């Protein structure tokens, strides 16, 4: 049974339509990602799920209830980490955790969250003096302090350094392994690829695709690229005659090829048949990044963090 | 909002504890803001003690219908403390909470965002009330307050507290940002305190100005406090004016409050 069901969700702010038609379901225990360029409607979607916004159309069910009608039930079992949520400057980390823990009937252990999120050294520090990464980690801790059945995390690792990012990913997997469902909003491909069981790619307020990260990559017709240095001289026609090869460029000793999905298999079998070794072989596989750009068709720089 | 049937008795218990903790946290945050403590609490008390140590100000004056200047300034300093905390400090603080997404973060939890409003209102109005009662006690020491009408004094004080709180919440409701709230509060401070008699005590005001003062929240408040401190029951008109200000501004604040 899905724990989150969204059907035909629409939301406009005045004349600007943030979400036009979004539908998806999230299964219990899943890490489900919402991926999309800035302004695609990701945040609005999760805000409607968290019961923070009133939708214009469509249905939303969280753990079987409508978050607009039964806010209390949703707030008790859903932990939310919003983008740019601050705390009072002079609130200490430990005090914030204790305060937020008191809001829930059965809170998680704040000692454990402090430990796992590496907040031990700043427990007595004011929010105002924390670094961006520490603030982000405290925000995650506050989203998890209620022992949520579902955690909604919006731009989870923005502002974290690579090491802290990896630790956070491990933490999120740990939370999922304890039975929680995670709804992750991100525009960071590596994060989606690493963490998500399934993804919804949202663009212009609509769902462009829903699949596993690998499925999304496979669903895109992308060109394969490879380059290598043949161990012995080789007749170009051997390769350019292959239907899988669309382009061959020689740069010094190095051969660079572009072609269709079966390019690598076709080229390597020809080389093997002729007893040629492909030295310094490099294969460029399409990544989620490529799939994402192909799907949302916007300048790549917009998708950079 | 509509379903409250699934709430256990245990749940209500933890909610009470949660509100108390929120209140304590907000009180701690107030105490950690030296500016706020200085302006709303320390300054009026120190000012009164300094004035009380000047012998001339303790003598009755013909200008003030026989009252001493010290007696005239006692309710004005109480009003000052209430305006400072409820009108000048509360709105920027709450607006900042809204601006920085603190109210929003709170609304993702089972704690209602209105709790924060209630806690802040309780603390800022509470500071003004406590300082005023402390001033009243000091006044007894300086022989200017008469404890005979303490109930009338408390009633006047609570109504003045409600009126200033209403004004403060209305400013919070209409100001978009903390900066704007600060600017509005600062602008309001001068006419409010002028009509309270901070620069020209009410007995010295020309009669037209005095009438305006009578209908202003702080003027009516200072008048009511003045009478009750002197041992008389505060005039009904002043109490009604205060009540009207409290209800009107409070109602408008509720009507126009923006949560985000």
Write the layout of secondary structure elements.
The complex is a heterodimer of chains A (305) and B (260).
Chain A: E1 2-13, E2 16-27, E3 31-35, H1 42-49, E4 57-62, H2 71-77, E5 78-81, H3 93-102, H4 110-116, H5 132-144, E6 150-154, H6 162-177, E7 181-186, H7 189-195, E8 198-203, E9 206-211, H8 213-218, E10 224-230, H9 236-240, E11 245-251, E12 254-259, H10 263-273, E13 278-284, H11 288-296
Parallel strand pairs in A: 3-7, 3-8, 5-6, 6-7
Antiparallel strand pairs in A: 1-2, 1-4, 8-9, 10-12, 10-13, 11-12
Chain B: H1 9-31, H2 34-52, H3 55-58, H4 69-99, H5 102-106, H6 113-141, H7 150-174, H8 178-196, H9 207-215, H10 217-229, H11 236-256
Helix pairs in contact in B: 1-6, 2-4, 2-6, 4-6, 4-7, 4-8, 4-10, 6-7, 7-8, 7-10, 7-11, 8-10, 9-10, 10-11
What does the overall shape of chain B look like?
globular
Mean pLDDT of chain A: 88
End-to-end span of chain B in angstroms?
A: 19 Å
Number of strands of chain A: 13
Q: Roughly how many Å is the radius of gyration of chain A? A: 24 Å
Q: Number of helical runs of chain B? A: 11
List the secondary-structure elements of chain B in sequence, H or E: HHHHHHHHHHH
Task: Please estimate the helix content of chain B.
Answer: over 70%
Please tell me how large the radius of gyration of chain B is. 20 Å
Q: Estimate what percentage of residues of chain B fall within beta strands.
A: under 5%
* Uncertain spans of chain A: 299-305
Rounded to the nearest angstrom, the distance between the terminal CA atoms of chain A is 35 Å
Q: Could you give the order of strands across the largest sheet of chain A?
A: 5-6-7-3-8-9
Average the pLDDT over all residues of chain B and give the rounded result.
91
How many strands of chain B? 0
Strand-pairing-aware structural class of chain A? alpha/beta
| Most extensive interface between two protein chains, with residue counts | A-B, 31 and 30 residues
What is the helix tally of chain A? Answer: 11
Element order, helices and strands of chain A? Answer: EEEHEHEHHHEHEHEEHEHEEHEH
Biggest sheet of chain B, in brief? none
Level of helix content of chain A?
Answer: 25-40%
């Amino acid at each position: 049974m899905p724990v989150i069901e969204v059907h035909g969700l629409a939301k406009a702010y005045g004349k600007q339509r943030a979400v036009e038609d979004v539908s998806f379901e999230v299964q219990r225990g899943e890490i489900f990602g919402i991926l999309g360029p800035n302004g695609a409607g990701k945040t609005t979607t999760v805000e409607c799920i968290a019961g923070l916004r009133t939708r214009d159309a469509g249905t939303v069910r969280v753990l079987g209830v409508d978050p607009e009608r039964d806010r209390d039930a949703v707030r008790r079992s859903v932990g939310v980490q919003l983008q740019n949520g601050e705390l009072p400057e002079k609130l200490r980390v430990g005090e914030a955790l204790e305060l937020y823990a008191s809001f829930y009937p059965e809170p998680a252990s704040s000692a454990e969250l402090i430990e796992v999120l590496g907040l031990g050294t700043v427990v007595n520090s004011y929010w105002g003096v924390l670094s961006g990464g520490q603030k982000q980690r405290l925000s995650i801790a506050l989203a998890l302090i209620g022992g949520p059945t579902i955690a909604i995390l919006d731009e989870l690792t923005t502002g974290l350094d690579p090491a802290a990012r990896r630790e956070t990913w491990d933490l999120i997997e740990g939370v999922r392994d304890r039975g929680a469902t995670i709804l992750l909003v991100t525009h960071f491909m590596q994060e989606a690829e690493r963490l998500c069981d399934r993804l919804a790619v949202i663009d212009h307020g609509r769902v462009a695709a829903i699949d596993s990260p690998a499925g999304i990559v496979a669903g895109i017709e992308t060109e394969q690229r490879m380059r290598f240095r043949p161990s012995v001289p080789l007749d170009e026609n051997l390769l350019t005659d292959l239907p899988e090869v669309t382009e061959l460029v020689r740069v010094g000793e190095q051969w660079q090829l572009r072609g269709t999905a079966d390019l690598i298999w076709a080229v390597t079998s020809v080389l093997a048949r002729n007893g040629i070794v492909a030295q310094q072989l490099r294969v460029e596989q399409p990544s989620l990044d490529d799939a994402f750009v192909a799907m949302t068709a916007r300048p790549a720089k917009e998708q950079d963090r | 909002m509509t379903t409250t049937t699934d709430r256990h008795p245990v749940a209500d218990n933890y909610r009470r504890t949660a509100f108390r903790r929120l209140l304590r946290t907000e009180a701690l945050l107030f105490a950690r803001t030296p500016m706020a403590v200085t302006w709303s609490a320390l300054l009026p008390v120190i000012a009164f003690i300094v004035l009380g140590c000047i012998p001339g100000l303790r003598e009755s004056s013909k200008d003030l219908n026989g009252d001493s200047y010290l007696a005239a300034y006692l309710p004005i300093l109480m009003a000052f403390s209430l305006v400072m905390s409820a009108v000048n400090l509360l709105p920027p603080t709450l607006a900042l909470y809204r601006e920085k997404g603190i109210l929003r973060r709170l609304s993702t939890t089972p704690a209602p965002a209105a709790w924060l409003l209630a806690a802040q209102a309780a603390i800022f109005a509470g500071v003004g009330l406590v300082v005023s009662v402390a001033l009243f006690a000091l006044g007894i020491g300086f022989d200017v307050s008469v404890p005979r009408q303490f109930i009338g004094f408390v009633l006047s004080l609570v109504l003045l507290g409600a009126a200033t709180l209403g004004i403060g919440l209305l400013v919070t409701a209409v100001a978009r940002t903390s900066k704007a709230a600060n600017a509005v509060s600062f602008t309001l401070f001068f006419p409010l305190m002028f009509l309270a008699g901070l620069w020209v005590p009410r007995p010295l005001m020309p009669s037209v100005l005095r009438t305006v003062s009578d209908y202003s929240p702080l003027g009516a408040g200072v008048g009511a406090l003045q009478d009750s401190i002197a041992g008389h029951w505060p005039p009904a008109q002043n109490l009604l004016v205060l009540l009207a200000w409290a209800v009107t501004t409070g109602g408008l604040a509720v009507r126009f409050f923006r949560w985000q």
